[in-house]
Amino acid sequence: MNKKGSKELPSVLDIPDLKGKRVLVRVDWNVPMHNGKVLGDFRIKKTMPTLEYLENAGAQVLIATHLTNGSIDALDPFVPEGMRLLANLRDDPGEVENSVKFARSLAKQADIYVNEAFSASHRKHASIVGVPQLLPSYAGIQFKLEVKELSRLFKPKHPFLFILGGAKFETKIPLIKKFTKIADHIFIGGAVANTFFRAQGRDIGKSLASEHDFDAKELLELFNTKKIILPEDTVVDGGKILDIGPRSAESLKQKILEAEVVLWNGPMGNYELGYKVGTLKVGKLIADFAKESIVGGGDTLTALRELNLHHEFSFVSTGGGAMLDFLAKGTLPGIEALK
Ligand code: ADP
Ligand code: MG
After folding, report:
1. Which of 71, 170, 235, 268 has a CB 3.0–4.6 Å from the CB of 278, allowing a cystine?
2. CATH architecture of structural domain 158-291
3. Is the CB of 319 under 6 A from ligand 1?
């Protein structure tokens, strides 16, 4: 018997007989919207191969998603003909509470469950971990690909360069800890760098840094690995560090050229306020020079879409927080639920 952790994920492509079967597909169509219009359909598009496969195999497809920033009707145009989209999963408090009652109400509408919501699979919600206990359950095509591509980073080719930015320090520190053991270099930009500058005793003024006062000693120990590279110059405005500077981006070029694999998560600066040059430069360098590039993160994808760079990488993960959790822990509740 396989150990739990290493057991193969059952794939939607291995379901023996789909003809006439009712298949509930959990997707993550919780996409960015504004004034009722979908701004980015990347995550939606990535679910289509699974939906079409099921349809072509003769299944009756039921699609379920949560949505946090708009009305579920806005998603109707994306529902392929012949399929049905259920009500917003979050309309029922049982979804987030992972109530058995809600899981049962979903499961009784289907014969088979497919998880094609990798980006929601870090959450122990009813549609992610509850339903798979009640129905034969499988991973979608993109879901399997996410697990495969991201898992390769645990035993990467070298040199392996990890470029990390963004702001949510709490979600990034476990990654830094883990990848100081795996990567050859970790370049840290964004507001995450500010927290490290502070730990070094530098005055960061009013710059955004982690609220939580991280143990400076712990952070400084990470420096002892000699793998962490901080920006050598920054863009400062109104007493705040808001982006990496031009020299930092330029120095990264050499590291990107040398690397066999580059993993990138997190914008290099406060791009929403216009400090996007660092993110654009780093994105373009990776796109132009990396042999292999793996990119992901909620805000990272938003920035890439704005900069029109999202087609330029070897693999773009649909996972935001889920990707970070998977990279940090090697699995997710939604993965374990399928085993
Ligand atoms: P992701 O979702 O890609 O993992 P995060 O959520 O960790 O990334 O962080 C993204 C946020 O970090 C963006 O809102 C961006 O503006 C912000 N950010 C990056 N650098 C800075 C900085 N120097 N100062 C303030 N905010 C920053
Ligand atoms: Mg984010």
Report:
1. 268
2. 3-Layer(aba) Sandwich (3.40)
3. no
Position in ligand 1 atom list of the atom nearest CA 166 = 9
pTM: 0.94
HSE-up (13 A, CA, CB side) for residue 75? 27
What residue segments make up the domains of the chain, in order of their start? 12-147+331-338, 158-291
CATH superfamily of 12-147+331-338: Phosphoglycerate kinase, N-terminal domain (3.40.50.1260)
Closest-CA residue, ligand 1 atom 10, reads 166
50 Cβ inside 6 Å of ligand 1: no
User: What is the atom index within ligand 1 of the atom nearest the CA of 234?
Assistant: 23
Note down pLDDT in tens along the chain; length 339 residues.
Answer: 344 445 789 999 999 999 999 999 999 999 988 888 888 899 999 999 999 999 999 999 999 999 998 899 999 999 999 999 999 999 999 999 999 999 999 999 999 999 999 999 999 999 999 999 999 999 999 999 999 999 999 999 999 999 999 998 888 999 999 999 999 999 999 999 999 999 889 999 999 998 876 677 888 888 888 999 999 999 999 999 999 999 999 999 999 999 999 999 999 999 999 999 999 999 999 999 999 999 999 899 888 888 788 888 999 999 989 999 999 999 999 999 999
N-to-C CA span, the chain: 13
Backbone angles phi, psi at 100, to 5 degrees: -65, -35
Same fold, 12-147+331-338 and 158-291: yes
Assess contact for 302 and 334: CB atoms under 8 A: no
